[in-house]
């Protein structure tokens, strides 16, 4: 199978409230899949099901073609995880954590873990509880990658990190992808940081997938248009549209050169077409007033 991770018609509810409603998606081998969504959108529920920590009410998650819930002991041996909140016994040092985890994995590399922490300037002899949040995150990443995982799951790994720590983490990921082709599934609020890395993007909104497509086609389909006042936005489908003193502006979801020509032929006038960042797309889809 080319899909390392497959989510099939997944549904999760809490006390009658639907957190995930028939979600289906797949992460291909060697790709970076970014799952986005506002707080409460269901990202954490999906990650728990993915890691075999929660049984869904409907559907299933497959890791390497096997059910993540019923076969979690076997499939998770091939998965590395960096949790949202770094967590380890506070009295243990990074060196002790490496030795402890190394006994659990046949493919473990002490040398790789220590070298990664050296690059990230994390002391091996300082107790975990005395490390900064960025250093704790670096330890979690080093432990996750030292087992040579085929799939790396990152649950909002840059939350609370400063700019230097975020850049260091992404640099490590870029190197890992280049060296081994590890598949990465990441949930994040750091849209600017993940934009350059992600091959595919999904956006959870109101318990459903509002977007699930390759990054390139997503950015090609969404464009920012600016033109003179008056007239209709047909044949475009604006996700957001505003009237300004100087004219009109919209982020559209279905841009093409053919539609642009049709818009001009209908009296739309001169149009300035601009690219949009992933953050603009996310706001158009899941922000207040988003209609995509």
Indicate the low-confidence ranges by residue numbers.
Answer: none
Most strands sheet: 6 strands, mixed
Beta percentage is 25-35%
| Count of distinct strands | 14
Oligomer: single chain
Tell me the series of helices and strands, N- to C-terminal: EEEHEEHEHHHEHEHEEHEEEHEH
Describe this structure in words.
It is a single chain. It is built from ten helices and 14 strands. The two termini are 32 Å apart. Helix 4 (110-119) runs antiparallel to helix 5 (133-146). Strand 7, helix 6 and strand 8 (183-187) form a beta-alpha-beta unit. Helix content is 33%, strand content 30%. With 292 residues, the chain is of the alpha/beta class. The chain has a six-stranded mixed β-sheet with strand order 6-7-8-3-9-10, with helices on both faces. Strands 2-1-4-5 form a four-stranded antiparallel β-sheet, with helices on one face. A four-stranded antiparallel β-sheet has the order 12-13-11-14, with helices on both faces.
